[in-house]
Amino acid sequence: MEFTRDDLSTRQRVARSILVNGPSTAATLADQLDLTPAAVRRHLDQLVEDGEVEARDPRPGAVRGRGRPAKLFALTERGRDSFEAQYDDLALQALRFLAETGGEDALRAFADQRVSFIEARFGAVLEENPDLTPAQVLARVFTDEGYAASVRELPLAGEQLCQQHCPVSHVAHEFPQLCEAETAAISRVLGRHVQRLATIAHGDGVCTTCIPDLPSSTHREKESVS
């Protein structure tokens, strides 16, 4: 089957929407891209056939109402490769050499240095955007570094930082110190404990970090009195 340049351009738009917004249904993609559901499904079928996208069942409890639940379409590792620079082999070789010659301390020092942009930019972005929550500021900082980050509110729990793309996911699969340093830096700039729930490096569709709300002053006062 031959494809026109417009077909390929639209298919790239579909793939990029999944990259930026995370696993999506065909109906959601159609709304976001102003395409017909039939057109989106045609491109999704080809992306699945090419091995760049996979269909997933929605998580239990996430589906409400009657009828068959809509499939979610997520990028595969191959699909992510089309958006990433081909640096993985060289980066892995360099980190393996660093691990062999410098050990764990050298690896952690490198990981800390790599995520130093978080602490270096957080304050300035917060000052420039006082209307944003700290989590939204983090999303802005990460997006500027190529992570396609966003924030999701968690009712009665806080917020969730979602990174739809990770520039170092392939390397972090072998060297989790990169993810650990990132989480630690997030915790430091927010001044509270955060919990990493999922990572692209370990096969999840999105890197997610739970950012719990700080206890209110009233709640803390009651605790101190009791």
Quick recap of the structure?
The protein is of the alpha+beta class and 226 residues long.
Primary descriptors:
Carb_Metab_HTH_regulators; WH-like_DNA-bd_sf; 6 strands; alpha+beta; 226 residues; Arc Repressor Mutant, subunit A; 10 helices; 4-stranded antiparallel beta sheet; 2 domains; Muramoyl-pentapeptide Carboxypeptidase, domain 2; two-stranded antiparallel sheet; globular; single chain; disordered C terminus
Describe the structure in your own words.
Helix 1 (about 5-20) crosses helix 3. It contains ten helices and six strands, in the order H-H-H-E-E-H-H-H-H-E-E-H-H-E-E-H. The protein folds into two domains: about 5-80, Winged helix-like DNA-binding domain superfamily/Winged helix DNA-binding domain (Arc Repressor Mutant, subunit A, Orthogonal Bundle), CATH 1.10.10.10; about 90-220, Muramoyl-pentapeptide Carboxypeptidase, domain 2 (2-Layer Sandwich), CATH 3.30.1380. It has about 230 residues and is an alpha+beta fold. The protein is globular, with a radius of gyration of 20 Å. Strand 3 (about 150-155) and strand 4 form a beta hairpin. Helix content is about 55%, strand content about 15%. Strands 3-4-6-5 form a four-stranded antiparallel beta sheet, with helices on one face. It has a two-stranded antiparallel ribbon with strand order 1-2.
Strands side by side in the biggest sheet: 3-4-6-5
Uncertain regions spanning at least 5 consecutive residues: 217-226
Distance between the termini: 73 Å
Number of strand elements: 6
H-E order:
HHHEEHHHHEEHHEEH
Overall shape: it is globular
Supply the CATH class of the largest domain. Answer: Alpha Beta
The main β sheet shows up as: 4 strands, antiparallel
Summarize model confidence as the mean pLDDT. 85
- Fill in the CATH topology of the largest domain: Muramoyl-pentapeptide Carboxypeptidase, domain 2
* Cα radius of gyration in angstroms: 20 Å
User: How large a portion of the residues is in β-strands, by DSSP E?
Assistant: 5-15%
**Class from secondary-structure proportions:** alpha+beta
Total count of domains: 2
CATH architecture of the largest domain: 2-Layer Sandwich
Helical fraction: 40-55%
**How many distinct helices?**
10
